[in-house]
Design a protein that fits this description.
Two copies of one chain form a homodimer. Chain A is of the alpha/beta class. Chain A contains 15 helices and 30 strands. In chain A, helix 8 packs across helix 9. The mean pLDDT of chain A is about 95.
């Protein structure tokens, strides 16, 4: 074990691989070449379409101890990963590592396969029950949590080697050209899966919508796809994209959103060329709505909106408030429709979105990003992975990537959740380092990182409730009391990789 | 020297590299991994825009003996390659290899730099004076002629390593996102340059149209571009794309076109899902026009048109005769306009177009392709590189790639050119092997390769002028006489690579 620059004790070896401790957000330089696939040759007349997932898995050469992946664009409606693991199990292949782009609660169905040894671990973060059970010591499977940009990095450096990628393809032709725009399982952008298509040793397109050649537009093309398999259903359309993302009506959320949009305005960012990212939560959407109004009032034409795209951003594109949307993932059905019809609504890969090890990701061009937290601390560190009960319940997503890239990263968070104070002395788990977090906005006050004295001064001038982070913490704790500290065992359940691949923290088994 | 399977004596070493003799079109299997670029990191705030080409060349680290590339989408209007070489010369860098996607007559300006040793050779074919002078022994520079798919292959295997790629970008932002659709030097698709962006050690975008971030749509993106340079002018718009491509009015050409379209019809290909490629010559366009009429008459909906795209194919897309256009290169201004507005008009890379060493190129899905020739021979071999004077004057383009991929490859060629017979005992230079050529159509008769006895029978049944290739040759020679055989020195001016990288022929110095 070694202490990283944030004071966290992290392992030097985890899951039999050497790990480096986190040092700082920007200085680690990559060495060597990008990874690449084996050269192959496909002559005219070759038939890529196989009769079943089983046939495709056999054709892929998947064996004990190998690594597979799927993407999470179908979100909690995904049926493919569970389907694949059932077939793998039926073929008596064991010890498989899953390096999907994310795991959702629907994949709790994998738990028996973890227990039986079909699945040995996760080269990806896990949302929901798997993380909870691992945190309790009820299942044993090493978990390596990565940011979206960090996963792209790990694929591109060859640190994660996917043997067989199963790509859910909502529209696909017999030669493997695909997009996510049309069909019963339409999910929009396939941005996270581009990396799998580029780097996996074998790429299997799985579709419930086999279309005449050629599918167009094309998100992932025939030159990268080895086999095509038809299944009855890729996903549950009602859960593929959330259609319940609406602006919050909660007064606390609305207050936070008001403050956050005023911070953006005060920072002088709402001007021509403004670029912006926010998530799909009710408060985030309220910020987007406020920002939209401010842009309209000021007659500002922004440059781009990025990230998980919602109908709010689609509206802003269509109103001319953005020139372009960079879409790594669609969060709602309006976004899915838009990406299938608008040439200014661009699908981008996770590499282009957020990989720190290329010639410049989209996050580097962001003016402002609105992010959430389960906890923050007085050093501005942010936790999004574990809850205050210590359980690993959430993936990092693009949190650390956008925080590092954007000129202004704003954490919006209620000061109290479930009677617990959200501003801590030290977060349970560090996901995103405080040096990349600029402002924390709660309904009780706004804390500005010391690296922005001018912004702080200007916010005070505008009579916004700026508070020192410790003062804010004390006000909150005065109401909630100091929560009983969590107790942990020594066993490490998961490591939290920073986007550059260093270990920023780890998650330990919770003492019951 | 070694004799390849077509009986041509080819070198085992050329330009200090080992070469393999051609064997057959499909069996050579690649080994190893795809090439890849060095990993790099670009943090927020990095400025890619440099003040001049000179600054960019210095920043790129270009040194004596290295290799550079440009693309040929600006065709004979390109100003960039000459500009780059002038700056390289001014920096006293010598012994540079040019691995551009093609060289055009406008690049005759490079001849003094070849003579002075600034340029040492070409990892690409050359159109025009450079090839002629090399053929006469007036300049000395090894030339390796590749097909479009062969260049993609050589880049992807690492056989050609480009140190610095200069990519002419008709619309480009400060972070290197670019397309060729808009601006004073708009050329449409940048399909050939995708490979350079992916594999070159350093990528410099050069633009005469620096646009606010972000350019969208994006053909080549910021993650691959290291520097951006603004110049006054990338090209001469009147020569960037040819606007003079019209259907031939020559009765010989019209007769050939009529026969060729009847061959396609007779082969049973004009049905739903039909896919088609043809070039921009007057006869090719006449074939396209005939095919269009036949499709309309039969109520057929095709799948895709591919290749260099002309207004004829744009019309067919807009009329619903094709579902999709796969555009590696725009041949006229209507194609440029279309690719900038129509989501079914897709830009594809040379890799996707024609690389034999990936999971399946577009050429593999072609039903019919119409191709030209400078000569053909009684074994159906085709020459497009040298003229009957023996001078290397033309690049291969996608000739051998589409011939190998398409179900039906048709060579359309007048029987006599400049009083010389076009059907020979043996072509001067083999570009495309006869085993991938299905039908040769002249105004005097149609020769069908023996591998298609059914098609031959059916054509005869339809009373088309089918002739044995030797009979056709004799009829032609009866009028022209037998031309005096060319005489060559032993020195090899250029090797002609087949698409798989083997040497199918070489070009020798012409005896004066």
């Amino acid at each position: 074990m070694v202490r990283n620059s944030l004071g966290r004790l992290v392992p030097e070896i985890f899951n039999n691989q050497a790990r480096r401790p986190y040092c700082d957000p920007f200085s680690l330089q990559p060495t060597g070449q990008r990874a690449s696939r084996t050269l192959r040759r496909v002559n005219p007349g070759f038939n890529k379409v196989l009769a079943s997932l089983k046939d495709a898995i056999i054709a892929s050469g998947l064996k004990d101890g190998m690594c597979i992946s799927t993407h999470h664009h179908l979100r909690n409606g995904d049926m493919l990963l569970n389907m694949v693991v059932r077939v793998i199990d039926s073929l008596d292949i064991r010890d498989i590592t899953i390096a999907s782009t994310s795991i959702h609660p629907v994949h709790a169905e994998l738990i028996p396969y973890i227990k039986s040894g079909t699945i040995r671990g996760f080269e990806c973060g896990v949302n929901g029950l798997i993380g909870e059970m691992a945190s309790k010591g009820e299942i044993s499977c090493p978990i390596i949590v990565r940011t979206h940009g960090g996963r792209a990095r790990a694929m591109s450096t060859g640190e994660v080697k996917v043997d067989v990628a199963f790509i859910a393809a909502p529209q696909c032709d017999r030669y493997g050209n695909m997009n996510g725009y049309y069909g019963p399982s339409a999910c929009g952008s396939l941005g996270y899966a581009h990396l799998d298509a580029e780097y996996a040793h074998c790429v299997i397109a799985v579709t419930d919508n086999l279309h005449d050649y050629p599918v167009s537009p094309i998100s992932i093309d025939q030159t990268q796809v080895d086999y095509v398999v038809q299944v009855e259903k890729l996903g549950d359309p009602s859960k593929i994209v959330s259609t319940t993302t609406r602006i919050t009506k909660d007064p606390v959320g609305l207050m936070i959103a008001k403050y956050a949009s005023e911070v953006i305005e005060t920072a002088g960012l709402i001007k021509d060329g403004f670029s912006f990212q926010t998530g799909a939560g009710g408060t985030s959407l309220a910020v987007a709505d406020n920002v939209r109004k401010k842009m309209l009032a000021a007659g500002v034409k922004g440059s781009f909106g990025s990230g998980g795209i919602t109908s709010y951003f689609v509206d802003m594109l269509e109103q001319g408030l953005f020139d372009t949307l960079f879409d790594v993932q669609c969060f709602d059905l309006e976004a899915v429709k838009s990406i299938g019809r608008n040439m200014k609504h661009l699908e981008i890969s996770a590499d282009m979105y957020a990989n720190p090890f290329n010639s410049g990701a989209v996050v580097n061009q962001l003016d402002a990003v609105i992010l959430g937290a389960t906890e923050v601390d007085v050093d501005f560190n942010v936790n999004v992975n574990t809850e205050s009960n210590g359980y690993l319940l959430h993936n990092t997503g693009g949190h650390s990537d956008t925080a590092a890239g954007a000129k202004l990263s704003i954490i919006t968070v209620p000061s109290i959740r479930g009677r617990l104070p959200i501003v801590r002395d030290a977060v349970t788990t560090i996901t995103t380092p405080g040096e990349t977090v600029d402002v924390i906005v709660t309904e009780r006050g706004i804390a500005v990182n010391d690296q922005h004295p001018e912004l702080k001064k200007e916010l005070i001038k505008r009579k916004l409730p700026v508070k020192d982070i410790r003062q804010l913490q004390q006000e909150i704790v005065a109401m909630t009391g100091i929560p009983k500290p969590l107790e942990f065992e020594d066993d490490i359940v998961a490591v939290i990789e920073y986007r550059d691949g260093t270990i920023i923290d780890c998650v330990r088994r919770v003492k019951e």
